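Hey, I'm writing a tutorial for new members on how sequence and structure tokens pair up, and I'd like a real worked example in the thread rather than a made-up one. If someone can provide the structure for the chain below, I'll link this post from the tutorial.
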Amino acid sequence: MRFVRLGLAALVATGLVRFVVGISGVPYERATHLTSLTIVVFLLAIVYGQRAAALRFGGYRHLVPLALLLGGTMYGFIIIAILVEGLGEIHGFFHSPGSGFTPERIGLSEHVTGQLSVMPTMTGAILGVTILGYALARHLAYLRNAFLLLVAGAGLRLAAGWIGMPSWMTSLTLLGIGLAAYYGYRARAAGFDSYGNALLIAFMIAFAVFHLVMYGFVVSEALDVATYYNEAATTVPEQLELQLSDAPWLVFVLAASAVTGYGASKTKLSAEDQR
């Protein structure tokens, strides 16, 4: 609990924000993704998986209680919030029949039971993401600054339309291509000595670009502002379908950039060894 205490506090804080936003009258469709406990818990899972490996917290079996604590805290808050909204006859995001995956006219006891039935599967998914963070600890540490740059770029793109910057100057795809080439080039110096690692680096950067673009769209819709993310005037499902159709090309282009960078580094080192 000491190891994940900040993460548990972040989950509770996110739940409180979601509760307040829900009862304030903001439409469910506008803000549900912006205050998602699921997004936060998966981010925490991969972060704590990486930290467990980096700080030598333990082996894979030590990740099980971490996942149980994260899942238990999230679902504990969700169930309490459902009971508060249901018993208090408060219309919010937690007990909102007909919204999201919640069936119309669902009863309070049915809703709580449904959440409890989903909890083991969700906790298993959290454990899987934690294991992924543990297994990719070196890669995640290596790409930490790349992820921070992408987040900063996503925030800049959100504001770019307001301040009149050209769209291409804040393109996350272009930034991703540059980062893939750079980190592919430096991979050998960081101890990643195969083209497979370069491809994995490219995939991880592409994964981050894809989700930041989607979240930028969600934020734009939630704030009801016009940005470069929502200029196509699509819904969240339509935007997700559009991004998924473009995802293979994104992965391919970033993979080519990372492999090219890695190959250039390998050629340079070989030339230096010959001299």
